[in-house]
Design goal:
This protein is mainly alpha-helical. Helix content is 50%, strand content 9%.
Length: 305
C-alpha cells in the first residue's frame, strides 16, 4: 500500500487513544466509581469475580486504563518498546472483550497494531508463502508516499484531503469541552469523541401526545413498542428521544390530520446517582430541534455535573 494509507491509520489510532485517555480524567472515573459499577455485575466470574469487590483492583483498572490509553501508541511507535506494548495490548483488549463484552472494537484495535511493525517482519511471519512478494520490485515492496506515478496536482489534492480529514478528527472530540454540562449526562458532543465505557446510565421515558389546544390525546410507552435493548438505550439518550418524538408526531399527524405536540417524561440515573428528569417536560419535542454542535435548551442540565 502507499505509505499515506498506513500512516493515516497510525495517526487515527493515536487520536483515538489520546482522546480516550483525556476523557477518563473526570471524577467518576478517577474515584473508581464508574469501574466499580461495571465490575459489580461480574462478581460471579471464575477467578475474576472475587477481585471485582476489591478497591485496589477497581483502582488498578481505572488508572491502568488511563495509562494504557496515553502510552500504548507511543510505545508501539518506538521500536525498543514495540513488542512489550503489543503483548500488553493483547492482554488489555482480551480483558475488555471478555469482561465488558464491547463487541468488535478490541479486535479492531489489535489488528491495527500490526501497522506499527516493520512490513518485512509482517511478511516473514504471516505471508512467507505468498508468491506476490517473490521477486517483487522495490516500488511495490516499499512504495513511494503517494504512489510512484502520482502527479504533483494529484499529490496536492490528496494532501489537502488528508489534512482536512485529520483536522476533522482532531476537532470533533473537542465538542464536550465547549458544550455546557457533562456529555455523560446530556450526550451532547459524546459521539465521535472517544468517550468509551466511561459511564453507566439507566432510565425510563414515556411520551404524552397532545392536540393543538393542549388536550392529551394519548400516552405512549416505548418499551411496549420497541425491542427491550433499544427502549433502554433510548431512555438515556436525548437525541434518540427526540428522534422517537419526531416519528410519533409524524405518525399521529398523518393518522388524525391534526397538529400534535409531543412531550417526554424522562427520569435518568448516571453512575448510580438519584434519578432526575433529563428532558424538559414542558418542551414540545415535535417542534424542537437537535444540533450536533450546540446545546439543546430542552435537555436539562444535571445540577451536580
Amino acid at each position: 500500500m502507499p505509505y499515506w494509507s498506513k500512516w493515516i491509520f497510525k495517526i487515527l489510532l493515536l487520536i483515538v487513544y489520546i482522546y480516550a485517555a483525556i476523557a477518563k480524567l473526570y471524577p467518576d472515573w478517577i474515584s473508581g466509581k464508574a469501574v466499580e459499577i461495571f465490575l459489580s455485575s461480574r462478581t460471579d466470574y471464575p477467578l475474576l469475580g472475587p477481585l471485582c469487590d476489591e478497591q485496589w483492583f477497581i483502582l488498578l483498572i481505572a488508572y491502568g486504563g488511563i495509562a494504557f490509553d496515553f502510552l500504548v501508541v507511543p510505545a508501539l511507535w518506538w521500536r525498543p518498546t514495540r513488542r512489550v506494548a503489543f503483548a500488553v495490548s493483547i492482554g488489555f483488549h482480551l480483558f475488555n472483550s471478555v469482561v465488558f463484552q464491547i463487541g468488535i472494537f478490541p479486535y479492531m484495535m489489535l489488528i491495527c497494531t500490526v501497522l506499527y511493525f516493520d512490513q518485512a517482519l509482517i511478511r516473514r511471519l504471516f505471508f512467507r508463502k505468498a508468491r506476490v512478494w517473490q521477486g517483487a520490485p522495490d516500488h511495490l515492496l516499499y512504495p513511494a508516499p503517494f504512489g510512484k506515478n502520482s502527479s504533483p496536482a494529484g499529490r496536492r489534492l490528496l494532501e489537502g484531503f488528508l489534512f482536512a480529514f485529520l483536522a476533522m478528527n482532531l476537532l470533533l472530540p473537542l465538542r464536550p469541552f465547549y458544550l455546557p454540562g457533562s456529555p455523560h449526562w446530556s450526550e451532547e458532543g459524546h459521539r465521535l469523541s472517544w468517550h468509551m465505557m466511561l459511564r453507566s446510565k439507566s432510565g425510563v421515558v414515556h411520551f404524552v401526545i397532545k392536540d393543538a389546544e393542549g388536550g392529551t390525546v394519548k400516552t405512549v410507552h416505548p418499551h411496549n413498542k420497541l425491542p427491550n435493548k433499544l427502549a433502554r438505550s433510548m431512555a438515556t439518550r436525548p437525541d434518540l428521544i427526540w428522534q422517537y418524538a419526531q416519528r410519533l408526531g409524524d405518525s399521529y399527524s398523518e393518522e388524525t390530520g391534526e397538529t400534535v405536540r409531543i412531550y417526554a417524561r424522562s427520569n435518568v440515573s448516571l453512575n448510580g446517582r438519584p434519578y432526575r428528569p433529563m428532558i424538559d417536560p414542558g418542551a414540545d419535542l415535535y417542534e424542537a430541534e437537535w444540533s450536533h454542535f450546540k446545546p439543546s435548551p430542552w435537555v436539562l442540565r444535571h445540577p451536580d455535573l
